[in-house]
Amino acid sequence: MRKLLESLRFLCTVMVLLTVSLFAVFCFQNLEDHMAAGINRRFPPQDISVNREEESRPQTREENPLISYTENDNKQVPTHRDSKLGQTCENEDDFEQWICENEHDFDRLSKRLAKTKVGGHIFMRDSITLEFTKKPQLRAVYEYIQQNMKHASRFCETGFNGGHSSMMWAKLFLGKIEIISFDMCYNNGGCDIGLEEIHRLYPDMKHTLIREDSTINLPNYTKENPNIKCEFIFVDGGHTGDVPEKDLYNFKPMAKDNHIVVMDDCVWNLTNSDYTNWIGKAINKGVEDKLICPITCKPMYIPKMKRNTSTCFHKYCK
Ligand SMILES: C[S@@+](CC[C@H](N)C(=O)[O-])C[C@H]1O[C@@H](n2cnc3c(N)ncnc32)[C@H](O)[C@@H]1O
Description:
about 325 residues; alpha/beta; seven-stranded mixed β-sheet; binds S-adenosylmethionine; SAM-dependent_MTases_sf
């Protein structure tokens, strides 16, 4: 009987020990899972499969500090993004549709120009949203041309820079216009890159770039070529001192009967020391002297640049 009791006690002890060990193993496994979950909460596992849509979305500078900037641009405005060639564009709005279909070439040009001294062109992008900062001006010019200039044959401009504005004129007429541009081209080969890119798109388009100071070259050119006239005159060269005024006055002999003269970046209330003032002054003087007659000014506020600005359309008075 005593032996039986001892055997039972031994059996009970073994069973208790077994239960305790099983319980310990169970607890340990739970603790491990729990700890792993905690670690994952702090460092969520990465999904390493590539999401193509996400990949093609333009990145902001925060997401990708490698987006390149022009070396001389203190505001660090990105010069390009990799917009897709042949992307599908479905916009109700004519202008948005045009931008969507063409931005690839403007961005390609900006990308090529990133290492030059080209800054301040009309297709700059905002550093955060990557929207075109001058979209309201682009729209104003686009809509004016679409509505009023179906049959233009020659565009003339001061301020070729890296060729963005010329590329815009060329694209609007699918290369079936002639362009005459004036620029000093002190921009590390930026002018040559611009010419190359425009030529790549429209190899048969006639494009003349007259280098050196427009305040000297433009009056010389008009004297030597009295029969060369333009329907569209874009004054976007030097923005300070008497350069905008001289360009405005010197372009007059080149104006065809049915022409338009467009000045970008202007203000007319002259309340600050912004560089747009010089252009506003040139316009005010031109109107006072009855050199130019106003057609319309498209005032616009550009939030990202915190600037009131305007694109003004005039005709040379008869
Ligand atoms: C605002 S950028 C022109 C931007 C260009 N229209 C675009 O959007 O692509 C001004 C250009 O004017 C040129 N410029 C400044 N002063 C000039 C002058 N006196 N004669 C000729 N070009 C001048 C600069 O070299 C610069 O390329």
